[in-house]
Specification:
Helix content: 25-40%
Strand content: 15-25%
Radius of gyration: 21 Å
Shape: globular
Order of helices and strands: HEHHHEHEHEHEHEEEHHHEEHEEEH
Mean pLDDT: 96
Number of strands: 13
Structural class: alpha/beta
Largest sheet: 7 strands, mixed
């Protein structure tokens, strides 16, 4: 059995568990690694759980695409916040997180050997899902500020291309793509007869007056735009595993086939919690994201001390900064030393497809101000010590 091979040998190992093991071996490490928020779901989410328990039939399987009250609530949110109208051309499918939504989409629109365009740096789980489906990720570099290059994307399209993926606000860079660029990419997809997969997990996390843009709201885009959303970030819902996707109606049967095979239905108790979370007052998001914005500014001010040692691209979204460190050191080796010698963890850029230098993703959403202050201080001192020496 040791000689057994499978498609999984071509898939990169998830980096978060790898870094997690390094942290376990170095107690006291502050993690600037995993992309989660510091706060809990709103009380409304917990208050809805008795409603789930009060109905005995909730212990049975429910609709593959999600329970009706949640679909209704999501349709209202999409109309109000995203400008996406649910009509005869599109529909909502509730998923066990937006990663599942992405996998659903890839399996529904591709055959083995097809191509999906990713913009680098990419989100590693996207690249992994494409490889698992037996497809090929075609990588298109963003510009020096990690913004989209629509002309380069258009040139990368071949007869095997099935979709272009965009993530805005972006993981891992934190940049927010311009409405103009997103519109150009969306139009290219429509003109070329391919899908635009828009990952919007960080839709609420924008700063300095920057507004989120949903390509699914563009005129005449419903037939080829696949929009992915998540409660994991904004609502502190990481372990509850609830996301959702807006898909063209013609993909509904295929997506249901995938979801029914893998999941049957999203966890119903989590769907009730999600329904409750969506009832939360606007102050819930405003206060929590406002606190993250304060941490963001502190982190940025601290990282600016590394000018000359690192390049720090301006980023007005998500809760990440993406550093290019001016060193020949391997990124994973640098991450290991930061954990072992300075007790601070970040994620190496190689896992996001960046192997032309030493890159690090710094995540600040999981920390409150005092912990963030200590963690960033360790990172700054660690980089100064390791790289300069």
């Amino acid at each position: 059995m040791e000689s057994l091979t499978s498609r999984m040998q071509a898939v990169q190992s998830p980096i978060i568990p790898v870094v997690g093991e390094l942290i376990k071996k170095s107690p006291g490490t502050i993690s600037l690694g995993q992309g989660v928020v510091y706060y809990n779901p709103p009380p409304e989410a917990i208050e809805f759980l008795p409603k789930f328990l009060a109905e005995p039939s909730n212990n049975l399987y429910k609709s593959v695409e999600g329970i009706s009250p949640l679909l209704t609530a999501l349709a209202e949110k999409l109309q109000t916040f995203n400008g996406i109208e649910i009509n005869g051309e599109n529909c909502i499918v509730v998923t066990a997180g937006s990663n599942m939504g992405f996998m659903n989409a890839i399996l529904a629109i591709t055959n083995p050997g097809d191509e999906i365009i990713l913009n680098t740096p990419y989100y590693f789980n996207h690249e992994m899902a494409i490889a698992m489906a037996g497809c090929r990720a075609v990588l298109v570099a963003t510009d020096e500020n990690y913004q989209l290059r629509p002309d380069a994307i258009a040139q990368a399209i071949t007869p095997k291309t099935r979709a272009v993926v965009t993530i805005s606000p972006n993981n891992p860079t934190g940049v927010v793509y311009s409405e103009t660029a997103l519109h150009q990419v969306n139009q290219i997809c429509g003109d070329r007869g391919i899908y635009h997969i828009s990952d919007e997990a960080y839709e609420y996390f924008t700063y300095n007056g920057v507004k989120h843009v949903s390509p699914g709201a563009f005129e005449n885009s419903s037939e080829y735009t696949i929009s992915l959303f998540s409660l994991s970030k904004a609502y502190g819902f990481a372990s509850w595993r609830i996301g959702y996707m807006v898909i063209p109606k013609h993909l509904f049967v295929s997506v249901k086939q995938v979801q029914d095979t893998i999941l049957i239905c999203p966890p119903v108790i989590s769907q009730y919690a999600a329904l409750g979370a969506l009832q939360a007052k606007a102050e819930y998001l405003e206060s929590n994201i406002g606190a993250i914005a304060q941490v963001r500014q502190f982190v940025l001010d601290s990282l600016n001390r590394l000018q000359g040692l690192c390049s720090i691209t301006p980023a007005n979204g998500a809760f990440y900064f993406f550093l290019k460190v001016n060193t020949q050191m391997d990124a994973l080796e640098l991450v290991k030393r930061l954990i072992q010698e300075h007790k601070v963890a970040v994620i190496p850029g190689t896992t996001f497809g960046m192997d032309d230098g030493c890159y690090l993703r710094v995540a600040y959403g999981a920390l409150q101000k005092e912990t963030a202050k200590e963690g960033i201080e360790r990172l700054v001192q660690g980089l100064e010590t390791i790289v300069i020496s």
